[in-house]
Design goal:
By secondary structure, the protein is of the alpha/beta class. It has a single domain, classed as Rossmann fold. Helices cover 30% and strands 23% of the residues. It has an 8-stranded mixed β-sheet with strand order 6-7-8-3-9-10-12-11, sandwiched between helices. The chain binds adenosine-5'-diphosphate (ADP) and magnesium ion. Adenosine-5'-diphosphate (ADP) binds next to strand 1, strand 2 and helix 1.
């Protein structure tokens, strides 16, 4: 597989109130053209920071990012513009993603102008993208402003704005978490249809494994800045290898996106985790932890079939 986007050993350290926070700790991933990768884990595990580094909105503390085989890790300013058109973010909160004073037409024309698309093409492209997100007929929506739209309609505009430059990759960070439960599936289906029609790769980020299961072929599970397990979504859910993945799976009793999530069946919270350092970061919450888990940080090992896990359980001693 030749990857559309690839990250190698990404790290991000923040200094917050004099303390170092290892938000992302050695994350590597690759997404093929047209593929959908899910990143799942509790709030605070480093998903958004990973997404922001992949999109070059945040500088990594260490590691490399390759897009279409080219190293984009240290590109800045105008040199990033071609990448910006090809890798687009779908914002989490449609209620503040759009300028409240702009009409829909202007919100959609802005990226076209930024990416140097000739003015003469704007109307046709705006029309096409509004049809794609089912805000039809487009004339009925062009002159409206955000306050005249519902959350679901706003998120369609946000999606349209991400699609309009003609990207190859969409990164959707909690794309429906701010929306009413009743409209979530509609937005996810639209995203999937757009991806299929345009051959787009996607990275979906969510705390919700049910959502990831609905839209992603492959999934990566994060815990406290690290990837603890990855693999094809169906197998990872049917037969989770990491105790943390098992807990996430157990919290998704019914395969329905609309369902409200039960609490995680593990004790404690991310904030109770041992400070980042030696050992498995999950050990204080893990029902199977043994001596080695405190002494040695588990490294990812292959389970075959595209699966990998970072856990001492089942390892050769
Ligand atoms: N700009 C920042 N400054 C300091 N700490 C941050 C910053 N952004 C994120 N963090 C911290 O990094 C960790 C990961 O955050 P984030 O990537 O937002 O996680 P997630 O998206 O999985 O909820 C958290 O502990 C968070 O508080
Ligand atoms: Mg986040």
């Amino acid at each position: 597989m030749s990857a559309l986007i690839e990250a190698q050993g990404l790290q991000k350290t923040f200094r917050a109130r004099g303390r170092l926070v290892h938000a992302v700790n050695d994350v590597s991933l690759a997404v093929a053209p047209g593929e959908a990768l899910g990143i799942v884990g509790e709030s605070g595990c480093g998903k958004t920071t990973t997404a922001r580094m992949l999109l070059r909105l945040e500088d990594p503390s260490a590691g490399r990012i390759l897009f279409d085989g080219a190293d984009i890790t240290s590109l800045r300013g105008a040199a990033l513009r071609p990448f910006r058109a090809r890798a687009q973010l779908v914002f989490q909160n449609p209620f503040d993603a759009l300028n409240p004073r702009f009409t829909i037409r202007r919100s959609l024309a802005e990226p076209l102008r930024n990416f140097g698309i000739p003015e003469a093409e704007h109307a046709a492209r705006i029309d096409a993208v509004l049809n794609r997100v089912r805000l039809t007929p487009p004339e009925a929506w062009l002159d409206r402003r955000p306050h005249e739209l519902s959350g679901g309609q706003l998120q369609r505009v946000v999606l349209a704005r991400a699609l309009i430059p003609g990207p190859s990759l969409i990164v959707a960070d909690e794309p429906v978490s701010m929306l009413d439960v009743s409209v979530r599936a509609g937005i996810l289906n639209l995203l999937r249809e757009a991806r299929d029609a345009l051959g787009l790769a996607a990275i979906y980020i969510s705390h919700d494994l049910a959502l990831i299961r609905y839209v992603c072929e492959r999934t990566l599970v994060m815990y406290l800045g690290r990837v603890v397990e990855e693999g094809p979504t169906t197998e990872l859910i049917a037969n989770p290898a990491h105790p943390y993945t098992r807990a996430l799976v157990a919290a998704v009793p019914v395969p329905r996106v609309e369902q409200d999530r039960a609490a995680l069946p593990i004790r404690g919270a991310l904030s109770d985790a041992p400070p980042t350092g030696i050992g498995c970061a999950f050990r204080d919450r893990c029902p199977h932890a043994f001596a080695r888990c405190a002494d040695e940080t588990p490294v990812a090992r292959s389970l075959g079939g595209g699966r990998a896990v970072a856990c001492h359980l089942g390892e050769a001693a």
